[in-house]
């Protein structure tokens, strides 16, 4: 039986899990109706298109992600660090036309200096901390915009965001490098060497990137090697800048498996043990923690 809905609403995708009161998943469904393709009036219909036939009584809906952005369903204001990952007590309740929905959007987290924001990752952090309540260290969330988050005493103390994933996408798809790195091949040795180069000489990043193109033209650099080198140079430059976060720390990775493997390999080469987790599980555990808070307030 489905008692409530857990929703992860990103820029490009909508993911919904039906949940029992005990916390087990009753169904999963998704669509490409992300925040970026909707106006404010389109969110409720997009959700109902996925789950409307499964609703009977009034159903709590706990939402994380970009649905709470300024351009989303309803703005859920950021909570400033240091803070515990914000829960249901800080959520924004959204009026709906369908009386079967009781929608609560969780807020993001902000940092004023240096200026930074996150929206969605804080729920994954909440899930990780629910499973690891004594964790003190750093959580890295690789993605389009990778987050490095300092955790102490159950709080998000500070964080930094790096646009490494977006830079990789832009360079591999829209730059002069797009032909050189075409395909999905990979070369671990080329990646490791590029990470080392990116870390030791981040000021040379722009020049090193163009050399990938030149080696493709002059030395027949294999596309898999070129792609791995591009990723390694970008991640290496990121690690150089993020060194105050990870050096000597216990690091946990939350994100896509392939990306987490790349970051794990890069950090492992620095002698740093890392803990890899399941991103979907962390999201669900964070949403479950929020639902538990909702049950407490309604009892």
Topology diagram in text:
Elements: E1 4-9, E2 14-19, E3 25-31, H1 43-51, E4 59-65, E5 79-80, E6 92-94, E7 101-105, E8 109-112, E9 115-118, H2 121-131, E10 137-141, E11 146-152, E12 155-162, H3 164-174, H4 188-200, H5 205-218, H6 223-241, H7 243-246, E13 251-253, H8 257-268, E14 274-276, H9 279-298
Parallel strand pairs: 1-4, 4-7, 5-8, 10-13, 13-14
Antiparallel strand pairs: 1-2, 2-3, 6-7, 8-9, 10-11, 11-12
Helix pairs in contact: 2-9, 3-6, 4-6, 5-6, 6-8
Attribute tags:
five-stranded mixed β-sheet; Nucleotidyltransferase, domain 5; 2 domains; 299 residues
The total of beta strands comes to: 14
Biggest sheet, in brief? Answer: 6 strands, mixed
Give the proportion of residues in helices.
25-40%
* Strand fraction: 15-25%
Query: What is the helix/strand order?
Result: EEEHEEEEEEHEEEHHHHHEHEH
Mean pLDDT: 96
Straight-line distance between termini: 20 Å
Largest sheet strand order: 3-2-1-4-7-6
Low-confidence stretches: none
Shape: globular
Number of helices: 9
CATH class of the largest domain: Alpha Beta
Q: Remind me, CATH topology of the largest domain?
A: Nucleotidyltransferase, domain 5
Radius of gyration: 21 Å
Determine the structural class based on helices, strands and strand pairing: alpha/beta
Number of domains: 2
CATH architecture assignment of the largest domain: 2-Layer Sandwich
CATH superfamily membership of the largest domain: 2-keto-3-deoxy-galactonokinase, substrate binding domain
């Amino acid at each position: 039986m489905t008692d409530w809905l857990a929703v992860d609403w990103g820029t490009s995708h909508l993911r919904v899990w039906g949940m029992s009161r005990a916390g087990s998943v009753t169904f999963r469904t998704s669509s490409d109706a992300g925040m970026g393709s909707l106006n404010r009036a389109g969110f409720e219909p997009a959700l109902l298109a996925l789950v409307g036939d499964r609703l009977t009584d009034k159903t709590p809906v706990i939402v994380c992600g970009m649905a709470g952005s300024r351009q989303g369903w309803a703005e859920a204001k950021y909570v400033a660090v240091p803070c515990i990952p914000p829960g249901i007590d800080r959520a924004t309740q959204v009026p709906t036309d369908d009386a079967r929905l009781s929608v609560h959007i969780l807020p993001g987290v902000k940092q004023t200096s240096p200026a930074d924001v996150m929206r969605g990752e804080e729920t994954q952090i909440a899930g990780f901390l629910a499973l690891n309540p004594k964790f003190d260290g750093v959580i890295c969330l690789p993605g389009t915009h990778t987050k490095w988050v300092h955790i102490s005493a159950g709080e998000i103390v500070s964080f930094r965001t790096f646009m490494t994933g977006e830079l990789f996408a832009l360079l591999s798809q829209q730059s002069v490098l797009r032909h050189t790195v075409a395909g999905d091949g990979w070369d671990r040795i080329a990646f490791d060497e590029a990470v080392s180069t990116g870390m030791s000489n981040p000021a040379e990043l722009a020049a090193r990137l163009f050399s990938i193109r030149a080696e493709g033209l002059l030395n027949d650099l294999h596309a898999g090697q070129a792609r791995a080198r591009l990723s390694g140079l970008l991640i290496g430059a990121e690690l150089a800048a993020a060194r105050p976060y990870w050096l000597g720390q216990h690091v946990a990775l939350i994100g896509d498996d392939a990306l987490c493997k790349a970051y794990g390999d890069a950090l492992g080469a620095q002698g740093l043990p890392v803990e890899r987790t399941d991103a979907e599980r962390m999201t669900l555990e964070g949403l479950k923690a929020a639902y538990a808070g909702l049950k407490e307030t309604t009892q």
